[in-house]
Specification:
There is one protein chain. With 312 residues, the chain is mainly α. The chain folds into 2 domains: 207 residues, Alpha-lytic protease prodomain-like (Up-down Bundle); 84 residues, 2-Layer Sandwich (Alpha-Beta Plaits), CATH 3.30.70. Helix content is 67%, strand content 9%. It has 8 helices and 3 strands; from the N terminus they run αααααααββαβ. The longest helix has 45 residues. The radius of gyration is 26 Å and the shape is elongated.
């Protein structure tokens, strides 16, 4: 009864958490649609390629935020007979798509920046428009990033969305600095140099999210968990002779699942298995943060007692 109530409370908290995330994402989508429209018009009037690139970066933010918003909505749907896990991995898929998009954008920005350095001497740009619309971009993306910042610690999806906005704010700062140099000094190459730096920052920051989400989708063992260490700890529990067929994976970035076969020292009754199972669950929860545990108990039935990854 207590466990059911705990799971119910967890479910309500998670649903409330997703509702807040969904609302915040919707606000940031609206802000970024507006700033993208303003920057596209301004880029056409001013003739600024850097401002147009910033607008395209903002447009990618819009698509990334929409993906994240859809993922947040899907993740709140309940499981069904045909979808027993529900849509809990929608957030991870969104994080993978968004981080991959950031990597592509970074490569594109770096390439375009080098092209602009080569041909910038022939470019005539209205720097005042660049400064004004870049400042507007900084304001809009700064507000959007602040709206999402408090929810980045417990969701790769929200972290990838926040990173899109924060990186775009940095991009707008680079465009603003470039606009100032254009107005005061007629130096056109400075925004390209800053864009290259921002591009490398994007690669550095999005790479970790990309591989973290990829590892979850590939069901790799979560970082910081030692499978052999867990095996030895479980085998120290009374009446547990051997633990094998161990699988540990993340369902999403909040839930860790564990399953194994546990060979018992003696043929005991079902009522005696209950306390052993509870001890296993408590140990895994307290020491490793594993909250979903499935154990198949057996007595001399399973022929192969070795772990799959150390078989010889």
């Amino acid at each position: 009864m207590r466990e059911h109530q705990h799971n119910s409370n967890q479910g309500h908290m998670h649903e409330h958490h997703n509702n807040i995330n969904g609302r915040n994402l919707f606000i940031t989508i609206c802000l970024n649609v507006l700033i993208t429209l303003f920057q596209v018009v301004g880029a056409i009037i001013s003739g600024s390629l850097s401002l147009l690139s910033d607008a395209m970066h903002n447009l990618s933010d819009v698509f990334a935020l929409i993906i994240s918003w859809i993922a947040e909505r899907l993740s709140t749907r309940k499981s069904t007979g045909s979808k027993t896990f529900g849509y809990k991995r929608a957030e991870i898929l969104a994080a993978l798509i968004n981080s991959a998009t950031l990597i592509i954008i970074a490569v594109f920005l770096i390439r375009e920046a080098f092209v602009r350095i080569i041909y910038s001497s022939n470019v005539i740009i209205k720097g005042e428009w660049v400064i004004g619309l870049a400042a507007l971009g900084i304001l809009a993306n700064g507000i959007s990033a602040l709206v999402l910042k408090n929810h980045t610690h417990d969701s790769l999806n929200m972290k990838s969305a926040y990173l899109h906005l924060f990186s775009d704010m940095l991009s707008s700062i680079a465009v603003l600095v470039g606009g100032i140099f254009i107005v005061l000094k007629q130096i056109y190459w400075i925004d390209s140099v800053l864009t290259i730096l921002i591009g490398f920052y994007l690669l550095y920051s999005s790479w970790g999210i990309f591989f973290s989400s990829l590892k979850i989708l590939m069901q790799f063992t979560p970082k910081g968990i030692d499978t052999l260490d867990i095996k030895h700890q479980l085998e120290m529990i009374k009446d547990v002779r051997n633990v094998h067929h161990i699988h540990i994976w993340n369902l999403n970035d909040r839930q860790i699942h564990f399953e194994c076969h546990a060979d018992l020292c003696r043929d005991i009754s079902i009522s005696e298995i209950g306390p052993i199972h509870e001890e296993i669950k408590k140990m895994l929860q307290d020491k490793h943060g594993i909250d979903h545990v499935t154990v198949q108990f057996e007595f001399g039935n399973c022929g192969d007692k070795k772990l799959d990854f150390i078989k010889k």
